[in-house]
What does this fold into?
Amino acid sequence: NAGVTQTPKFQVLKTGQSMTLQCAQDMNHEYMSWYRQDPGMGLRLIHYSVGAGITDQGEVPNGYNVSRSTTEDFPLRLLSAAPSQTSVYFCASSYSRQKGAKNIQYFGAGTRLSVL
Amino acid sequence: KQEVTQIPAALSVPEGENLVLNCSFTDSAIYNLQWFRQDPGKGLTSLLLIQSSQREQTSGRLNASLDKSSGRSTLYIAASQPGDSATYLCAVSYSGAGSYQLTFGKGTKLSVIP
It folds into this structure.
């Protein structure tokens, strides 16, 4: 198993550009989420999904869109990048609680995004 | 709003020393608490997960405890090694249907000096 795979690893954008951060998991996990990590702020939840076709907002959703058409993939879209979105982005996945699982979350290696 | 605090922010110890990292949270209605390790430029690796009904979990040289009533958790690392140098993050998840989000502390950066 590859676990949680994020692409790209690094990206530089200009203000106003759009892009999609990819996240894929091969563990058949129902739950997937996106976090951003900023110095002095810790990790904050952007969006999450409890299954295909179901998404919801986290703590800092503004400026980001998500969709979940398959169990494996959970892309994060920046429609018009802003310098405030410069950050490291992490995708995570886990089994849902309804399965009685421990809800251990597995993280990808991250995407380092700079918006100029 | 749940807040998670980790003290100290940084810690430097000589190799072989036993050490304790601290985590406190403001809302005791948690579902579970996880300790993660993050190496520079890398993702997070789950070390230990404690369910709200448990008091502690152990894995090798690591032992994590949970005291819900006081809103505290500790991560004990025995016989520290230079390879333990990393940032350690504590995160809690809420109780309640549909509440999956993790609330993270800002981490403790550990340096183990050979």
